[in-house]
Amino acid sequence: MKRFGILSMEGVGSALRSVISRVKEATAKRSSELPKTAPRLVAVSKLKSLDYVIEAYDNGQRHFGENYVKELIEKSKDVKIQPLNDIRWHFIGHLQSNKCNNLVGVPNLFMVETVDSVKLANSLNISWGKLNKPSPLNVMIQVNTSKEESKSGCLRDQCAELVEHIITHCAHLKFSGLMTIGEMNHDWSQGPNPDFTTLVDCRKDICEKLSLSLENVELSMGMSSDFEEAILMGSTNVRVGSTIFGARQPKQASNVSSMQGSTQLTSQEANLSDASQQNVTKDGLPNLAALNTDNSTDRDSHTALNSTT
Ligand SMILES: *Cc1c(COP(=O)(O)O)cnc(C)c1O
């Protein structure tokens, strides 16, 4: 079904199918100790209009990731999204405790992947509890595997304690796994991404310390530039944005302030936006997003991406 005649939208379906087949191929190449089940694909639609989400939905995608509370609320409550009641939203951005009440109001919120402190876990627990939902909210703990100060996430040594806190004190949350963003532009010829290795080891620690079984603790790792490697290392949840939807507009101060009120971009988020631009140029394609500032940018760069994938 085609709801939109715009070129950029038509590219979403084929880009999505290409990512899905790459996910399957990578899963098939896993070593025999790892599960044969393909990871969940989360299509990261941040900074993309709702029409992109609907186009991916029409092509069978159900899990979507968003980074900004305000943007997620607007998208999830839009009249065009309301009928799509099996959509599943993942919050994957930096979350402030005072935004929890707003976030939990998102219809079909499936998972918050970025809990990184006891304070945040407690706020989210209280916010979700107030809604009297039939089931707890799925949460992952974001781990700052590279220990860079600019990045969000709890440190590996604090992780077990935070998991234990959630399991014992947050009845309205379900601890589902660990998430990392990982080093951008890792050179794979130098071996596996140390961030992914750390996340795998961190899960092992936690499972031993808290007597959990590995199968019950997910690993959210892998983005456009590295989801296949992450799958080979056991990722159960990959978050892919620009390879499905095309390059995002570079973030500008005005752009961000309209998304997030007065909140500043963290340098982590700035890195992510850089990385998605680099993905395009790395493939030898012109970095159109950097050259253009008008709305045709997404269309052009998306078409360029699709013609090679
Ligand atoms: C933006 C973002 C992604 C997707 O990045 P791409 O490189 O566009 O695939 C994944 N995870 C997080 C946390 C993000 O912020």
In short:
It is built from 13 helices and eight strands. By secondary structure, the protein is α/β, with parallel strands linked by helices. The chain has an eight-stranded parallel β-sheet with strand order 7-6-5-4-3-2-1-8.
* Rg: 19 Å
Which whole number gives the mean pLDDT? 84
Return the CATH class.
Alpha Beta
Query: What share of residues are in beta strands?
Result: 5-15%
Shape descriptor reads globular
H/E topology pattern? HEHEHEHEHEHEHEHEHHHHH
Largest sheet: 8 strands, parallel
Low-confidence stretches: 1-7, 254-271, 273-309
CATH fold type: TIM Barrel
The DSSP helix count reads 13
Widest β-sheet, arrangement of strands: 7-6-5-4-3-2-1-8
Head-to-tail CA distance between termini? 22 Å
CATH homologous superfamily, by name?
A: Alanine racemase
Number of strands: 8
**What percentage of residues falls in helices of 4 or more residues?**
40-55%
InterPro entries: Ala_racemase_N, PLP-binding_barrel, PyrdxlP_homeostasis
Modified residues (N6-(pyridoxal phosphate)lysine): 46
Pfam families: Ala_racemase_N
Family: Belongs to the pyridoxal phosphate-binding protein YggS/PROSC family.
